[in-house]
Write the structure tokens for this entry.
Amino acid sequence: MARARIRLARFTVASAIATGLSQVVLLMVYSWTDLDALSASTIAFLAGSVPHFLMVRYWAWPPGNLHSQLATYLTVTLLGGVGSIGLTTAAEWLVLPFLPAGWQPLALTLSYLAASGPVFVAKFAIFDRVFAARRARAITSEGMLQPAYAPATG
């Protein structure tokens, strides 16, 4: 249980750093360029995803099977990213026209942030299941618990 709390704490820190980076990139790109919300939030999503994967893989969980971890990370993160990008784009179409120009970038970054919150717990649960598989416990033939990566006695 203590290991799970440590992984959750590290995942939370990694997610906060990645989200902060994405927010700064979104605010800068949307404020300083002529790109629309779809383009700006896609760039912001990519800017946060790469460091997030590296922090999650090498700090929150022990390195394991790169192919499995990367496939899971890309699938889960892309699904969450589609939600964040979709909500940000919808906010641009539905809300931003009613706001003064100076408030639009802030409103857009808040919509991006709001979209990332709901998937946090699901992402942790899925990543913990896949990334921590090496540390999963298995019942041996003697009925004793031992790490799954340790050779079974028998």
